[in-house]
């Protein structure tokens, strides 16, 4: 999270430096159950009056989720106030605000994302950009450490040791999928059998076939990834 926060806001959360004293950052990952309950109630408006009660009871860590969201929103607002002044670092917030500031100079109108949209996108980036990468790498290492994967592990080690003679040679340019095809295949397979998220946000169908079934246009649906990625005719 320290790395992705620096990429988004040009300002690290300093979780490792401070020993993760901001416990609400970790609290977000404890709020998954509460978020699912909230999504369920939103799908059934008649049950929405129960949402404040669930929040007060902190079911599934909803309060932690709210504090985390408020923290990210404050970070985004602070970064937006610095603008795109000369010498500012290139970060995600800069690119999200650049279009509307350029449009304002040319047309005296602000276009592009508004403040709320930037805050919400910052929340998505901060969450998906940190936990998903960590989870995927844990899956890769776990499966390669299994006795049944001993041959695959030896192949990965051979590929890495053949490609690099020293740690200094390991750079972003030298670690592409074409230069390390076997390692890339292991990562791709780990992402299939060990998806980093249990589900994805719902999508609105344009009227297409999904998994052999026609989904009418305008229907909102989503897939449970652990089940979907193990379907034989898909894989």
Alpha-beta classification: mainly alpha
Order of helices and strands: HHHHHHHHHEEEEH
Structural domain count: 3
Radius of gyration: 22 Å
Count the DSSP helices.
10
- Would you report the number of β strands? 4
Oligomer: single chain
Outline:
globular
Question: Which sheet architecture does the biggest sheet show?
Answer: 2 strands, antiparallel
Q: Order of strands side by side in the largest beta sheet? A: 1-4
What percentage of the residues does DSSP assign to strands (E)?
A: under 5%
**Overall pLDDT:** 79
Low-confidence stretches: none
Amino- and carboxy-terminal Cα gap: 32 Å
Helix amount: 40-55%
Keywords: Heme, Iron, Membrane, Metal-binding, Transmembrane, Transmembrane helix
Cofactor: heme
Transmembrane segments: 35-57
Family: Belongs to the cytochrome P450 family.
Summary keywords:
two-stranded antiparallel ribbon; mainly alpha; 235 residues; 55% helix; two-stranded antiparallel sheet; globular; 4% strand; 3 domains
Q: Could you explain how this protein is built, in words?
A:
With 235 residues, the chain is mainly α. It has 3 domains: 2-128, no CATH class; 145-194, no CATH class; 198-235, no CATH class. The chain has helices at 2-9, 23-27, 32-43, 51-56, 62-82, 92-107, 115-144, 150-163, 181-193, 225-228; strands spanning 203-204, 208-210, 213-215, 220-221. The strands form 2 sheets. Strands 1-4 form a two-stranded antiparallel sheet. A hairpin with a 2-residue loop joins strand 2 and strand 3 (213-215). The radius of gyration is 22 Å and the shape is globular. The model has no long low-confidence stretch (mean pLDDT 79). Pfam families: p450.
